[in-house]
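User: Hello! I'm new to structural biology and keep hearing that structure can be predicted from sequence alone. Could you demonstrate with Putative GH43/DUF377 family glycosyl hydrolase? Please show me the input and the output so I can see what each looks like.

Assistant: Of course. The first part below is the input, the amino acid sequence of Putative GH43/DUF377 family glycosyl hydrolase. The second part is the output, the predicted structure written as tokens.
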Amino acid sequence: MQGPFPPTMPDDFLIFTPDDVDLARSPLRRGIAEPTFVLGAFNPGFTRLPTGNLLLMVRVAEALSEPIDGSHVRAIRWTPDGYVLDRHSLAGVDTRDPRQFELRGLAHRMLGLTSLSWLLPVELSSDGRSVVAVHYERAIEPAATWQDYGVEDARISLIDGRYYMTECSVSAERHCTALHTSGNGLDWQLQGIILDHQNKDMLFFQGKVAGKFVALTRPLGEVYFAYPEDAPYVGGPSINLATSPDALHWKPMEAPGIRARKGSISAMKVGGGTPPVQTNDGWLHIWHGVERRETVGIYRSFWALHDRDDPGRVLRIEDDTPLIEANPALTASMADRLYLPTPVVFSTGMVDAGDDWIVASGEADLACRITYVPRSRFA
């Protein structure tokens, strides 16, 4: 028999899933009449609002229920007049990846997306255990041609009382990082492009160093150069750092940051996760590392500590024992909707909760996950 009090809620749970999105209120309704579904509601920006409640800025990847129409595959694109569908001949397209299709026979690798992403503000209780409101009227969608295939993977930092949110803007023009700012965490203004190159994980430190903004970045390219055979590192994407006087104009730091290390289960690829927070020991952040497995790889969350006054100096890094791993039990009820071949968790924000940090993650590129991590874990 259940006692007078509700059972204790676990410290690791899904808080928002595709079924929680009301597509009748999607911005895509301005132009797309065909049925759509939520491929994923995941990888949320995360912060605490002035009220004390928490905010998830959820990436909603909305896809056509029938992307293939006869002899063509279709992609959703934003225009100033509404959303339209572009058609690409199936004869020249590889559609094996459910997230994207690849146009064959071109001089450069060329992709199309099977979904378009927009950002949905979801307000949580102060402990992150319940949804208070879903702010469809404040959804962030493409607003320029350099975003016309979607906005993805928000990261939010609170600096000197103002909120700064980076996101990845996708288009045929460029694959860039854009900045939004807010005074209250709910009403956002687009400030424009701040990195004009493919950079999937730019996130601001949650505080300035010597009066400057500092950010983690991860520029991507088609070619990487090899380390010497006796080096401890593996060539490829790495977490770099940059500084700015105004959050708009950025200069890369010469310190190499975090690089994939030989022998680590994160050796395939590394990238930023949560915006670094200041602790007594330095700047703490959670990053993701990828183990090579099939086409996508296994994504796990690790952590690192940077010097408070010299953030290019990494004081400690944990890249062998994961802090957070994918948990198939969390998505078991949605197993028929999983589309990735390997386990994936992607941590995107952390807030102070006294004896714990509350960490927000994307689980399986499908849903939003909340995990309580004791402060003692970082001792």
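User: So the tokens describe the shape?

Assistant: Right, they're a compact way of writing down the 3D structure. Reading them back into a model, for example: The radius of gyration is 20 Å.
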